[in-house]
From TrEMBL:
<protein>
    <submittedName>
        <fullName>Phosphatidylinositol transfer protein cytoplasmic 1b</fullName>
    </submittedName>
</protein>
<dbReference type="GO" id="GO:0035091">
    <property type="term" value="F:phosphatidylinositol binding"/>
</dbReference>
<dbReference type="GO" id="GO:0008526">
    <property type="term" value="F:phosphatidylinositol transfer activity"/>
</dbReference>
<dbReference type="InterPro" id="IPR001666">
    <property type="entry name" value="PI_transfer"/>
</dbReference>
<feature type="domain" description="Phosphatidylinositol transfer protein N-terminal">
    <location>
        <begin position="108"/>
        <end position="219"/>
    </location>
</feature>
<dbReference type="InterPro" id="IPR023393">
    <property type="entry name" value="START-like_dom_sf"/>
</dbReference>
<dbReference type="Pfam" id="PF02121">
    <property type="entry name" value="IP_trans"/>
</dbReference>
<dbReference type="GO" id="GO:0005737">
    <property type="term" value="C:cytoplasm"/>
</dbReference>
<dbReference type="InterPro" id="IPR055261">
    <property type="entry name" value="PI_transfer_N"/>
</dbReference>
<feature type="domain" description="Phosphatidylinositol transfer protein N-terminal">
    <location>
        <begin position="1"/>
        <end position="96"/>
    </location>
</feature>
<feature type="region of interest" description="Disordered">
    <location>
        <begin position="221"/>
        <end position="245"/>
    </location>
</feature>
Length: 245
């Protein structure tokens, strides 16, 4: 099992991030789901944690067969997906700083992602989502400049601790590193850029508003994926277990 912690600073308040992240995840998942690949939501429901109280549990399948390199395709079924389980006991997370806290000394792999300057795959680039030219009409924020996290108000940091497990002898280490580098990093970086770029679309929504939006898009996305998979063979998918805490 390979665990990494990603830290992503955002020019938002914690409460804004709560709404913006839910909006972004739903829309991003919908836009990236086509041709039988994308994000299928298996479960999304309230859950009570003995320590943190009422929160939201989600389980998703990220279908990505065509995105696998040839050395993985040789060993996995034609229908391949990652299983992601997430427990969101909002705001049970350390977010009110600039990403400098050391949560646990045992964590040796900490990756800071910069939504302004870190490169994303060319296929995901959109001029209107470029934060160096973005400006929010509703909040007056933007564009972002080099060193923005030390100057921006508001500012917060999202901590994403992700455990990836692929227990296949001879392929485990290489595959887990691939999933972190090509899948998890890109999803987090692109998604958080979009959450900021789409500020004027979600700003002002209530939690109830964004939950309705989330439910509507999840149903649309699941229907797209199920329709496409029905045309394929019923070969079982090989699941990776990814736990996003």
């Amino acid at each position: 099992m390979l665990m990494k912690e990603y830290r992503i600073c955002m020019p938002l308040t914690v409460e804004e991030y709560r709404i913006g992240q839910l909006y972004m995840i739903s829309r991003h998942s919908s836009e990236q789901s086509h041709g039988g690949e994308g994000v299928e939501v298996i479960c999304n429901e309230p859950q009570t944690h003995p320590q943190h109280g009422l929160g939201q549990f989600t389980e998703k399948r990220i279908h990505l067969s065509s995105k696998l390199p040839s050395w993985i395709k040789m060993f996995v079924p034609r229908i391949f997906y990652i299983t992601e389980k997430a427990w969101n006991f909002y705001p049970y997370t350390i977010t009110d700083d600039k990403g400098d806290d050391n949560l646990e000394a045992m964590l040796t792999v900490v990756i800071h992602l910069d939504i302004l300057s870190d490169k994303i795959p060319e296929k995901h680039y959109e001029q209107k989502e470029d934060l160096s030219s973005w400006r929010s009409a509703k909040t007056g924020r933007g564009p972002l400049r080099a060193g923005w996290r030390n100057e921006s108000l508001p500012v917060m940091c999202s901590y994403k601790r992700v455990e990836c497990s692929f227990e296949v002898y001879g392929l485990q280490g290489k595959t887990e590193e691939f999933i972190h580098k090509v899948n998890i990093r890109d999803i987090l970086l692109v998604g958080h850029r979009q959450a900021v770029a789409w500020t004027d679309e979600w700003h002002g929504m209530t939690l109830e508003d964004v939950r309705r939006f989330e439910k509507e898009l999840q149903e649309q996305t699941n229907n797209k994926l199920k329709s496409k998979h029905a045309q394929k063979s019923d070969q079982c998918g090989k699941a990776l277990s990814v736990f996003n805490k």
